[in-house]
Specification:
Elements lengths: L2 H8 L2 E3 L12 H31 L3 H34 L8 H12 L3 H7 L6 H17 L9 H16 L1 H20 L8 E8 L3 E8 L2 E8 L2 H5 L5 H9 L5 H7 L4 E4 L1
Parallel strand pairs: 4-5
Antiparallel strand pairs: 1-2, 2-3, 3-4
Amino acid sequence: MNLQQTITRMSKIEPNLIKITSKQGYDKTSWLKEGDRHRESSALLRNTRRQNYDLFKIAKSDKEKRRCIEIMDACVYSSTLLIAYAYELTLKAGITCLYLGCSQKLFEKDIKSKYGHNLVKAADDLKLSLSEDQRTDLRSLENVLMKTGRYPIISSDTNQYLQNINARSYDFWDDNKYNERLDLLEDIRGHVKLIDADSGNPVTYITYKIDEDGYFCFRMGGRLSARITVKYSEYQARNGLNSRQAMRDLLLSNDALKPLFAYYWDKAEYIED
């Protein structure tokens, strides 16, 4: 008896309907709304900075000028951190589409550890076409999320400390850079909205339950690359069948699935839950 016959006889696979609620975190629209809130808050702060610059120019006392500077400084720093968070949430809105049909545990783990503040990783997995300058700026925003937008500059070297302070100030206060970030964020948001919602590039989801406690989920189209996510059943793990090859044998033994996976197996990304 060969391996395929053993799996076909012992393992049971059956269609598994996707049931998703916003409470599970897979709702793209909810993530986009959160990103939009951060973007709007950032824009409001930036506008307050401009208003206080006008007030600074007509201020009569040093006290009034200092107060204007304090408000402007707070606005540029907070607006930059918020726009960085808007990027993160907007990108993760698209990432939710990669996990439809997968376990909530896998989604929650990956959204925190695999992606975290890694904007470039998220952009790459969403197949965004970015210039090298744009990728560099995403890395700069990652640094804002992890360090420069949240913590004071620390350095034992005075010259290095001053260089870091000046670099951060230039990055945060530059209105042209801020506006470029708004434009790119809007482009990314447009791309994310079309994921799984583009009639010219429709999405296909196939999910199956394996035995009592395993599953596999396959997606293709929808502006994303083909992807297979698998959680091996306890039976498969116990019998040494928790491998990509064994999974392929199982799926190709199913007449309904064989044509699809015979074509896509080597083309799709393979993820193990």
